[in-house]
User: Which sequence fits this backbone?
C-alpha cells in the first residue's frame, strides 16, 4: 500500500459485540462530516451578516430559509448515507436519463430569468436541474467506466464516456450556465483520470470544451452578460462605463477581502459587508463577507475546512472497495474542488465571475441539497469500504 | 487490484487540488497583507458623496386619537443607474422586469429618461441621479423576494423600504385630511429651496398641505467616501432622519362620519322631491320658457359643526366627496381621469371643500346680522320695540315714481297659500320678523340704512364684524374670503364681466335691499356662517375656527384599539388649540337678546297671528326635536338661484346651542335642494340630536381596502337611521 497511514483499520475494541468491524454504521467518517457542519454554520452567520438589512420587517428572512435548507440537506445526507451506493450501479442510467429529461424540460418550460432558463419555480422554492445533474452524471460515468476492468481506457470506451458527459454539458451550456458546465467538465475529467484516460484524451476533451464554448459564443447562446464578465475579468481596473457594473462587484469583493487584514473588522462591523455594497453577497460573494469580517484567519479557516473535506473525499476514493466507488469519489472531489476554487477565486479576482456557489456556505437550497447528496454518496462509500 | 495505479492517479488529482489551494492562499495573503496598505493609502485621498434619507411623515389623529393618516411600509424596486447606462442593456432589463412588475417598458424608459419633450427628445429624469432609480413603487412582498433572491439575474436591482401614506378611515374626512401628490412644476423651485427632492410627494390638499412642513420631518443623510471613479468605499457619517410631528385635529371622527352621512342621505332624499313654478291667475306657469315642474338636483352641500366658545371644528363635511386613497393607489392616468373627471360643472367638482370654498348667497339665514346692524346702529326707532306692518310687499321710498317705471321698486315676501300670494305677517318687531322670516321688514332696513345715511356702507361694516367678507383663517387651504357687496366689489364684478352687461357699475339701493335678505351679490361660506352664528351664541366673540389642536412629538404609540393612537402617551410639541378671538364685539344685550329670542322662536314657535296663524319656519320640523335636552336657536335660509326657479333654490340653515356647557354651532348648506327648512335644517337637527344621543351615531370603523375597480371617487354612504331627518317641515316660506 502506498499510504499505510490511510489504511488504519477501524477501531474494534471490546464492547460492541453485535456488529462486526465491517458494519457500515460503525464506519462513518465523522472527520468528513465535521467540516461540512462547520461550513454550514459559518455560512448561516455570514448570510445573516450580509442580509439582515435586506428585508426590513424580518432581518432573519434569508437566514431562516438557509437554516431550513441546511436541516433539510442534513436529512437528505443521512438518507443517502444509509443506502448502499451499489444500488446505484444498476440505476445509474435511469437517474442519468431523468436528469437529462429535467435539463431538457427546464430549457423549454423553466422560469426565464436574466435571459436564462435555469430553474423550475414552485412558489417559494425554485429547483435547478443542473445542480442535481452533477451527481447523476458522475454516478453514470463511474458506472460506465467501472464496467470494464481494463487498466487502460480504450478509445471507444472514452468516446462513450464523452457522450455521457457531453449531452448534459451541452444542455447546460445552452441554458446558458457556463459555470455549472465547467464544474461538470472538471468532475468528469477527474473520473477520466481515475479511469486511466490517456493524456491525449484529456487534451481532446479540453479542446472540445473550448470549441463548444466558442461555438456557443458565436451562435449567440452565451449572452453579452457572460462575455462582459469575462472582459471585465481581463480588465479588472477598467473605467469603461459599459463594464462598470461588472467590474465594481469584484472590486468591492476584493476590497472587502483585502481590508479585512489578519483578524477582520469583526462580526457585523464590516463597512462593506454591512454597508450593503456587494450585490448578491449572500450567494456568490459570501466569501468576501467572511474575509472582511473575520480576516485572513477566518478566510484561512474556511479554506482549511474545505481542504480537510477534500482530503477526506480523496481518502475515500483511495479506500473504496471497488472502482465504482473510487470513480464517484474522484468526480465529486473534482466538483467540490472546482466550486471552491471558482467561487473564492472570482471573489479575489483570479477567476472570472460565474454564478457558482461556495459549497455549504452560499445561500441557496438547490446547491445545498446537491452537495448533501454528493457527500452522502462519499460517506456511503466510506461506510461500506470493507468487503 | 490496481491499487497502485489508482493511488498514482489520485495523487495526480490531489496535486492539482493542492496547487489550486495554494493559488487561493497566495492570493488571499497577497490581497490582505501586501495589497491592503496600498488600499488604506488610497482611502486617505477620497472624496465624499451624500445621500438623503427620507423621514417618516407625521401621522394625523382626530381629537380622540383615531388615526386619520398613517404610514405603511412600501417596498420600492430600484435599479442602479450604472446598470442602465448601456441602452441595449437597459431595454433588456426593462423588458424582463416589466412583466414581473406589471408595468410597461415605456413607463420604465420614461422614469429613466423623463417624458418626451416637444422635440421628441426626453426631457431628463425627475429622479435623483445620486439615488438608485425607482422603477416601481409599492410592490408586493413576494415580488420583492422574487427579485432579491434572483438579483444576479437583474444586475443593479434592489428593493428599498419607503413610506406610503395610508388613510385608515377613508373616505371619512377626506376633504379635511387632504392628500399627497407629486411636486408640480410651478412649485418645484420653492420645494427645492426647502430641501426637497423633486420625486417626493407633498401635501396638496387639506391639512396635509397646510401642515406639510411639520408633518414632513427632517431628512437625514449618509455621507460616503468615494474614490476618484465615484465608487463608494465606506460610510463616513450617517445621520438618521427625524420623523415629522404628529398632528391632532379637533375633529371628532364619529361626528364627522355622521355629518357626512346625514348630508349625503339628505341630498339623496331631496332628489326625489319635485318642485313646481308659481302659477299666475290663469294657472299658467309664470315662466313659460321653463318646464312647469322638475325634480330637485341636490348635487352638493356641506355641513360645519364648531364649538363656539373655543372655535374648534368638530365636523366639516363636503359633498360630493372622494376617497383620498385614490391619490396613492398607483392607478393609471386614464383611470384617474375616470374617477376624477375634469368638469366645468360646479355641481360635480369633487376636489372642492364646499364648507370653506363655497361662495353662496345665504338667503334669510343672513338676516340675524342685518338685524344686528339695524339695532346696533339705531336704525330701528325704539330698537326691539319697533313695529312694522308687514303687508306682504315693500315699495322703495327713496326712488321716485318715474324711476320706478324702469327699475324694480317693489319687493315681495315669500309666497303663502299654496304659492298664490305673498305672505302677510301684520305687525312685527325684529324678534317676530326673524321668527317668521319677514322679508319686508328687512327690505326696509336694507333701504333705509343705505338711503338715510348718504349711501355709506353701514350695513356692510356691521356684518363684516362677524367675519363676512374675510377669510376665517382656518388651517385649511384654498379658503375663500367671500364677499360683502359694496361700491368697490360691485365695480370689480361688472368690470371683470361676471355681472351682465348693462348692469350698473354703481352700487344701488336695490343691491342693499337684496343684501338685507342675504341675496344678490353676497357670497359667504358655510364656515363663515357657522363662525358668525357662533359669535351670536357666545355674546360677540368672533373666533378663528381651529381644525388642529396640537402638533405632537413623533412616535405617539398606538393603543390597544385598532386604528386609534394612545394620546395619553403623546407629548405636545406645539399647542395649536388655543382659543383665537379675532374680534370681540361685546354685543349689548339690548341688541343681542331680541335676535336670540327670534332665533329661538324659529325652533320652538310661536309664530304670528295675522289673517291666520303663521308658524315659524322651523317650528314644525323641530317639533320632533328634544328641546329640553339641548335648547337651540337657529335660522333658515333659502337662496334663490338661476332665474329664481324653485328647483334652483339652495337651502341654508344655521343654529347654535343655548347651553354654554354644550357650545355647539352647526351650519348646513345644500345646493339646489329646496327650502332651508326642508333640506338644510333637518341635517342640522340631526347633528344636534347626535350630540345628545338622540340620534344613532355609528362608531367610525377602519375602512375596507380601496376597491380599485370602482368607477366613482367615493362609495355611497347613508345614515344608520334617517329618523332624525324627519319631522314635518313647514313648506312655502323661509
Assistant:
Amino acid at each position: 500500500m502506498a499510504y499505510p497511514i490511510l489504511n488504519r483499520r477501524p477501531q474494534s475494541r471490546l464492547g460492541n459485540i453485535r456488529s462486526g468491524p465491517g458494519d457500515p454504521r460503525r464506519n462513518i467518517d465523522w472527520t468528513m462530516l465535521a467540516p461540512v457542519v462547520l461550513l454550514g454554520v459559518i455560512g448561516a452567520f455570514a448570510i445573516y451578516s450580509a442580509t439582515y438589512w435586506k428585508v426590513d420587517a424580518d432581518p432573519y428572512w434569508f437566514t431562516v430559509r438557509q437554516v431550513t435548507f441546511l436541516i433539510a440537506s442534513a436529512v437528505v445526507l443521512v438518507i443517502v448515507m444509509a443506502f448502499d451506493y451499489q444500488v446505484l450501479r444498476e440505476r445509474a442510467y435511469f437517474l442519468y436519463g431523468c436528469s437529462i429529461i429535467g435539463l431538457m424540460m427546464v430549457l423549454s418550460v423553466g422560469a426565464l430569468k436574466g435571459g436564462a432558463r435555469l430553474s423550475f419555480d414552485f412558489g417559494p422554492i425554485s429547483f435547478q436541474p443542473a445542480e442535481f445533474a452533477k451527481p447523476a452524471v458522475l454516478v453514470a460515468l463511474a458506472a460506465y467506466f467501472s464496467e470494464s476492468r481494463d487498466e487502460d481506457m480504450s478509445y471507444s470506451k472514452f468516446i462513450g464516456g464523452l457522450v455521457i458527459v457531453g449531452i448534459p454539458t451541452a444542455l447546460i451550456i445552452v441554458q446558458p450556465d457556463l459555470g455549472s458546465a465547467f464544474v461538470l467538465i472538471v468532475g468528469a475529467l477527474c473520473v477520466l483520470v481515475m479511469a486511466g484516460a490517456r493524456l491525449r484524451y484529456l487534451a481532446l476533451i479540453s479542446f472540445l470544451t473550448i470549441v463548444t464554448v466558442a461555438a456557443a459564443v458565436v451562435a449567440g447562446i452565451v449572452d453579452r452578460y457572460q462575455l462582459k464578465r469575462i472582459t471585465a475579468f481581463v480588465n479588472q481596473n477598467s473605467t469603461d462605463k459599459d463594464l462598470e457594473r461588472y467590474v465594481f462587484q469584484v472590486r468591492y469583493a476584493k476590497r472587502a477581502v483585502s481590508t479585512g487584514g489578519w483578524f477582520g473588522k469583526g462580526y457585523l462591523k464590516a463597512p462593506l459587508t454591512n454597508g450593503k455594497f456587494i450585490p448578491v453577497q449572500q450567494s456568490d460573494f459570501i466569501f468576501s463577507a467572511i474575509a472582511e469580517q473575520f480576516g485572513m484567519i477566518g478566510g484561512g479557516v474556511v479554506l482549511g475546512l474545505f481542504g480537510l473535506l477534500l482530503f477526506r473525499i480523496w481518502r475515500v476514493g483511495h479506500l473504496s472497495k471497488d472502482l465504482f466507488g473510487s470513480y464517484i469519489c474522484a468526480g465529486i472531489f473534482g466538483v467540490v474542488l472546482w466550486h471552491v476554487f471558482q467561487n473564492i477565486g472570482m471573489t479575489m479576482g483570479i477567476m472570472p465571475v460565474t454564478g457558482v456557489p461556495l459549497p455549504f456556505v452560499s445561500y441557496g437550497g438547490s446547491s445545498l441539497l446537491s452537495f448533501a447528496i454528493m457527500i452522502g454518496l462519499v460517506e456511503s462509500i466510506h461506510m461500506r469500504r470493507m468487503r | 487490484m490496481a491499487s497502485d495505479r489508482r493511488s498514482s492517479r489520485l495523487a495526480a488529482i490531489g496535486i492539482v487540488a493542492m496547487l489550486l489551494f495554494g493559488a487561493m492562499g497566495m492570493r488571499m495573503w497577497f490581497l490582505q497583507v501586501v495589497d491592503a496598505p496600498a488600499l488604506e493609502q488610497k482611502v486617505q485621498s477620497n472624496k465624499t458623496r451624500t445621500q438623503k434619507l427620507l423621514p417618516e411623515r407625521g401621522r394625523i389623529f382626530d381629537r380622540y386619537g383615531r388615526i386619520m393618516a398613517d404610514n405603511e411600509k412600501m417596498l420600492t424596486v430600484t435599479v442602479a443607474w450604472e446598470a442602465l447606462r448601456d441602452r441595449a442593456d437597459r431595454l433588456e432589463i426593462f423588458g424582463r422586469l416589466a412583466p414581473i412588475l406589471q408595468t410597461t417598458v415605456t413607463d420604465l424608459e420614461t422614469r429613466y429618461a423623463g417624458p418626451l419633450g416637444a422635440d421628441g427628445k426626453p426631457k431628463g429624469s425627475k429622479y435623483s441621479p445620486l439615488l438608485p432609480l425607482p422603477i416601481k413603487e409599492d410592490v408586493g412582498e413576494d415580488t420583492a423576494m422574487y427579485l432579491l433572491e434572483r438579483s444576479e439575474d437583474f444586475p443593479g436591482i434592489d428593493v428599498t423600504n419607503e413610506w406610503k401614506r395610508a388613510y385608515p378611515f377613508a373616505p371619512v374626512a377626506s376633504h379635511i385630511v387632504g392628500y399627497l401628490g407629486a411636486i408640480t412644476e410651478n412649485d418645484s423651485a420653492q420645494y427645492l429651496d426647502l430641501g426637497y427632492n423633486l420625486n417626493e410627494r407633498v401635501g396638496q390638499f387639506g391639512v396635509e398641505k397646510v401642515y406639510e412642513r411639520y408633518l414632513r420631518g427632517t431628512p437625514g443623510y449618509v455621507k460616503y467616501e468615494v474614490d476618484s471613479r465615484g465608487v463608494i468605499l465606506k460610510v463616513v457619517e450617517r445621520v438618521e432622519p427625524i420623523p415629522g410631528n404628529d398632528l391632532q385635529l379637533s375633529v371628532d371622527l364619529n361626528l364627522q362620519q355622521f355629518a357626512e352621512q346625514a348630508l349625503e342621505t339628505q341630498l339623496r332624499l331631496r332628489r326625489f322631491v319635485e318642485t313646481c313654478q308659481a302659477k299666475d291667475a290663469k294657472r299658467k306657469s309664470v315662466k313659460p320658457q321653463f318646464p312647469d315642474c322638475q325634480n330637485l338636483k341636490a348635487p352638493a352641500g356641506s355641513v360645519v359643526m364648531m364649538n363656539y366658545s373655543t372655535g374648534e371644528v368638530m365636523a366639516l363635511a363636503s359633498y360630493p366627496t372622494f376617497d383620498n386613497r385614490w391619490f396613492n393607489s398607483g392607478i393609471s392616468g386614464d383611470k384617474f381621469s375616470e374617477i376624477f373627471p375634469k368638469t366645468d360643472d360646479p355641481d360635480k367638482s369633487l376636489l372642492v371643500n364646499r364648507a370653506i370654498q363655497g361662495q353662496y348667497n345665504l338667503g334669510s339665514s343672513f338676516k340675524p346680522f342685518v338685524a344686528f346692524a339695524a339695532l346696533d346702529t339705531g336704525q330701528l326707532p325704539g330698537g326691539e320695540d319697533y313695529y312694522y306692518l308687514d303687508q306682504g310687499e315693500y315699495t322703495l321710498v327713496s326712488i321716485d315714481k318715474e324711476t320706478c317705471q324702469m327699475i324694480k321698486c317693489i319687493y315681495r315676501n315669500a309666497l303663502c297659500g299654496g304659492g298664490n300670494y305673498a305672505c302677510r305677517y301684520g305687525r312685527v318687531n325684529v324678534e317676530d320678523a326673524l321668527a317668521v322670516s319677514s322679508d319686508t321688514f328687512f327690505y326696509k332696513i336694507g333701504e333705509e340704512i343705505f338711503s338715510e345715511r348718504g349711501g355709506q356702507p353701514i350695513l356692510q361694516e356691521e356684518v363684516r364684524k362677524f367675519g363676512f367678507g374675510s377669510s376665517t383663517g382656518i388651517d385649511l387651504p384654498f379658503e375663500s374670503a367671500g364677499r360683502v357687496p359694496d361700491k368697490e366689489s360691485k365695480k370689480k364684478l361688472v368690470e371683470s364681466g361676471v355681472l351682465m352687461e348693462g348692469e350698473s357699475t354703481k352700487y344701488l339701493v336695490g343691491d342693499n335691499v337684496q343684501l338685507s335678505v342675504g341675496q344678490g351679490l353676497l357670497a359667504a361660506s358655510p364656515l363663515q356662517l357657522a363662525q358668525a352664528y357662533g359669535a351670536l351664541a357666545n355674546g360677540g366673540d368672533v373666533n378663528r375656527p381651529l381644525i388642529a389642536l396640537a402638533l405632537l412629538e413623533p412616535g405617539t404609540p398606538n393603543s390597544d384599539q385598532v386604528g386609534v393612537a394612545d394620546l395619553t402617551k403623546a407629548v405636545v410639541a406645539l399647542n395649536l388649540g388655543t382659543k383665537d378671538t379675532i374680534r370681540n364685539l361685546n354685543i349689548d344685550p339690548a341688541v343681542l337678546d331680541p335676535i336670540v329670542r327670534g332665533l329661538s322662536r324659529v325652533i320652538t314657535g310661536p309664530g304670528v297671528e295675522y289673517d291666520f296663524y303663521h308658524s315659524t319656519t322651523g317650528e314644525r320640523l323641530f317639533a320632533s326635536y328634544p328641546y329640553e335636552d339641548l335648547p337651540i336657536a337657529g335660522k333658515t335660509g333659502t337662496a334663490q338661484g338661476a332665474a329664481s326657479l324653485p328647483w334652483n333654490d339652495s337651502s341654508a340653515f344655521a343654529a347654535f346651542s343655548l347651553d354654554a356647557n354644550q357650545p355647539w354651532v352647526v351650519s348646513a348648506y345644500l345646493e339646489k335642494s329646496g327650502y332651508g327648512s326642508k333640506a338644510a335644517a333637518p341635517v342640522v337637527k340631526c347633528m344636534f340630536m347626535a350630540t345628545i344621543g338622540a340620534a344613532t351615531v355609528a362608531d367610525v370603523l377602519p375602512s375596507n381596502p380601496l376597491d380599485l375597480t370602482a368607477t366613482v371617487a367615493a362609495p355611497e354612504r347613508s345614515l344608520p337611521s334617517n329618523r332624525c331627518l324627519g319631522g314635518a317641515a313647514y313648506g312655502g316660506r323661509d
